[in-house]
Amino acid sequence: MFCSMKNGSQNPGVKRVLPLVCSLLLFLAAVCPAASLAATPYEILKECDEARGNLSGITWIVSVEALERGHKNSRRILVKSSGFNVVAETLKPPRRKGQLLILVKGNMWFYKPDLSKPVPVSQRQKLLGLAANGDIASTNYAEDYSILSFEEVDFESRACYLFLLEAKTKNATYSRIKYWVSRRPHLGIKAEFYTARGDKLLKSARMEYDNRIAAGDGERVFISRMVIHDELMSEDTTTLNFSDPVLQPIPDHVFNLNLLRK
Amino acid sequence: MRYAVSLLLIFLLAEPIAAGQTAAADTMQNAYASDNAVLLDHFSLDFRNLTYGLVQKPVNSALNPDNRQEVPRYTLASDFRPDFAFNVSRLNMLLKPRFDFAWKRCEDGVCDGREDNDPEYYVNEWLVRVEPVDSLFLSYGRENLQWGPSLLLSPSNPFYTDNGRNNPKMEVPGADYGRVVWSPNIKWTGSFIVNTDEGRQEEIENFDPAYAVKIDHTADQGYFSLIFAKRREATDTHLGLFGSWNLNDALVVYTEDSLREGDIEALAGGSYTFGNGSTLTVEYFYNGSGNRDDDLLDIIASGNGPDERLMLFRKNYLLVQYYYRDMFDRWNGLLRATAGLDDQSAAVLGLIEYNLGPNVQLFATGTLFGGDDTDEFGSLLDYRAMAGLEFSF
């Protein structure tokens, strides 16, 4: 549209410059698609969610290591996820083998082999150490949270966006989140989790993205590590290592309570 | 029939085994090794052993005069519980044989001084499930078929309402079911269930086969289920339902109800998770066919109690439970009080588990029963205490 401006065509100087400007714009559009189509804050959050599991079908392994008051504990979990539906099966230690956590459309159930049936649980129930059940599931910040503020900041010498998020519903795992997102690529690198009033910092998390998944449309970046710190009253930390991500369709029946493989 | 089953197995196994063979099919030997490896990939074995001692004191009451039910005072037992599973894409098989070794000594009533150490071998659960077409599942086997969110009992379940929560370490016996489950999408599931035999639920007298249609709906932050059931010889149908709602990140509320022969059974409950991860659960159960005042023995003798239930014959019950799981990833603690509001009897259960290592857990559980020997919770036992080790591999 800009290139076919009629007024410009009457000026010989503009006539000479116009093809150059058009070429430059086309070049920029080709090499920097993000620059030509700036993502909205919502789209940025959505991209961040996709690097933390929000995909049509993916499996991965989470190794959770918790340091609580000097005690070290660990757990190994197989996670199958499709969108925001998740089944997490504990593989180790043996006494927890076969325990299942099922999250479907915001409903969460817990099953263990010596329970006769899955029982509904809330997302607040802790998984291990500082990690809540909701932490191993895919994040859905784009849909579950409202953006209260959004600004460009530098964080540890990286160009970032800083989001202030507030839960849209009472069902979200955290009420308020400060979320640092690197500007290129769009990845959540730090989060601070606050109480509902936003006046008390409960815990913080740092995320790393060293996993790569081969996908039809190229290579995808996927979360590799999340370290959660207790900010309230202790030096406790919980580390979640994400490994072996594989893109694969997960059929709906995997999340069906009537068909659990007990 | 055997030929048909063989054909079906070949059909179900062909795809994954053929896929596994492709990479290593240079020689017959390699192919054979590959077959074995692929089959082993789909096979799993979980093994648990529960070794424990149990002490309980029977009450001399109208329900158990002179201990005619031969309740032993002391039990030393070791239960071996291997779970075998074989899963390929469209076939799942499950086998849970049980080997229970126990020494029992009776010190009350008609069996005073008697000792017994007969071992028991049985299959508590087994299952074969196939998926002949996408989203359709056919299964038959002996299952502990449970559903619903409640702890006290499952009134919506027309087959067996006891969910085993009164003794968390003991397994609920399985019964025989055929099931057709159709799950067209994540929101809806329809099931047709036939209960063909009481299986190991041997306490059920005069078993009558039952049929049920169950429809499940998963909504945003909520889960609902409707169950229509009928026993073959019964005239009335059983209508059951349950639903649970996640009101926020910490609070789950639920209901589980049934209507049979004009009587309503309704259970309402809620579970709140505190910031430290512990959970408080409260349930109220209204038993429409229950009796507030009559003698328990008369109620049972009259046959007015539900067939598939061994207790809860009164009208109003309250359950309060506090559960703290994974304190420092080593301790679990549970305290549960169940009260019969009509005869003011109660049972208080405490459970402590301590994780000794990745494979071993130490546990101790005790139940105190309160009330007169004519009251529901006071009429069978004074107390029950159990302690032992649970090994997992």
Order of helices and strands of chain B: HHEEEEEEEEEEEEEEHEEEEE
Low-confidence stretches of chain A: 1-10, 28-36
Major beta-sheet overview of chain A: 13 strands, antiparallel
- How much β-strand is present in the residues of chain A? over 45%
Tell me the β content of chain B. over 45%
Coarse shape of chain B:
globular
> Share of helix among residues of chain A?
10-25%
Number of helical segments with 4 or more residues of chain B: 3
List descriptors:
heterodimer; A: alpha+beta; 13-stranded antiparallel β-sheet; B: mainly beta; 52% strand
Protein model, in words:
The complex is a heterodimer of chains A (about 260) and B (about 400). Mean pLDDT of chain A is about 80; it is low at about 1-10 and about 30-35. Chain A is globular and about 75 Å long. Helix content of chain A is about 15%, strand content about 45%. Chain A has 5 helices and 17 strands. Chain A has helices at about 10-30, 35, 40-50, 135, 140-145, and strands at about 60-70, 70-80, 85-90, 100-105, 105-110, 120, 125-130, 130, 145-155, 160-165, 175-180, 185-195, 200-210, 210-215, 220, 225-230, 235-245. The longest helix of chain A has 20 residues, at about 10-30. With about 260 residues, chain A is α+β, with helices and mostly antiparallel strands. In chain A, the strands form 3 sheets. Chain A has a 13-stranded antiparallel beta sheet with strand order 6-5-4-3-2-1-17-16-13-12-11-10-9. Chain A has a two-stranded antiparallel ribbon with strand order 7-8. Chain A has a two-stranded antiparallel ribbon with strand order 14-15. Chain B has about 400 residues and is mainly β. Helices cover about 10% and strands about 50% of the residues of chain B. Chain B is built from 3 helices and 19 strands. In chain B, a hairpin with a 5-residue loop joins strand 13 (about 265-275) and strand 14. In chain B, helix 1 crosses helix 2 (about 30-40).
